[in-house]
Amino acid sequence: MRLDKFLADCGVGSRTEIKTFLKKKRVLVNGALETSPKRQIDEKKDTITFDGQVLSHETFVYYLLNKPRGVVSATEDREHKTVLDLLDDMARVKEVFPVGRLDKDTHGLLLLTNNGALAHAMLSPKKHVDKTYRAKVSGLMTVEDQKRFGQGIALKDFTCQPAKLEILSLDEEQESSLVEITIAEGKFHQVKRMVAACGKEVVDLQRLTMGPLTLPEDLDRGDYRRLTEEELASLEIFDVAL
Ligand code: URA
């Protein structure tokens, strides 16, 4: 590929900026100064350095974000801050997008990537990827509700697949519950609607897991990091090139 494309893919700057960087002798190819943007390089074999730093060319990138409340799971929005606004410049260069959506007021685990095949596999209803949510609920959830979740709750427009409702704690005085809900689908407002079907209301919703990925305890709300080698390896179950 052309050297300027390689540098742009690595997030060094725009094509125009890169031209200037090359003129200013800030780029080496295999230890030798290179000033031509048209120079053909082999990204697998050649060593490219910018300001003394070796650059590595990645096709796919994977970000794990602890989405805070108040941002939308989109790449662009006229009115609201998006999850892309929380990531670094490389995320935009690589054109990452969220794998599925969380509601604006939901927080927790969100995977963002530019690997379309992986996103497609993780969101495919056929793959039954489990997602676990922790919910604070206004109202006391019951064993009866657990049974309804287990049988598959019928909503107005569709019947949910069997889901798991675990009651973590009940506060009789405040009439509130803390629960964990695991679903294998991802329909619009699904968790909130399932709880509403039991006559209660979700007042806080956090996603804890998606497939093999778990929200790291040390990742503050609004923070993100790239997937670790282990997390990436855990995605091999989806049988797509990573
Ligand atoms: N279910 C919901 O109701 N909201 C979400 O954001 C995710 C699942």
TrEMBL record:
Question: Keywords, A to Z?
Answer: Isomerase, RNA-binding
- Keyword RNA-binding attached: yes
Where in the sequence is the signal peptide annotated? none
Record-annotated RNA-binding S4 domain positions: 1-65
Q: What's the Enzyme Commission number for this chain? A: 5.4.99.-
Q: Which InterPro entries match?
A: PsdUridine_s_RsuA/RluB/E/F_cat (IPR042092), PsdUridine_synth_cat_dom_sf (IPR020103), PsdUridine_synth_RsuA/RluA (IPR006145), PsdUridine_synth_RsuA/RluB/E/F (IPR000748), PsdUridine_synth_RsuA/RluB_CS (IPR018496), RsuA_PseudoU_synthase (IPR050343), S4_RNA-bd (IPR002942), S4_RNA-bd_sf (IPR036986)
Q: Where are the transmembrane segments?
A: none
One molecular function GO term is: 16S rRNA pseudouridine(516) synthase activity
* Pfam families cross-referenced by the UniProt entry: PseudoU_synth_2, S4
Provide the family line.
Answer: Belongs to the pseudouridine synthase RsuA family.
Concerning PANTHER family, the annotation shows: PSEUDOURIDINE SYNTHASE (PTHR47683:SF4), PSEUDOURIDINE SYNTHASE FAMILY PROTEIN-RELATED (PTHR47683)
| Protein name (database record) | Pseudouridine synthase
Which species is the source of this protein?
Answer: Streptococcus loxodontisalivarius
Q: What is the lineage of its organism?
A: Bacteria, Bacillati, Bacillota, Bacilli, Lactobacillales
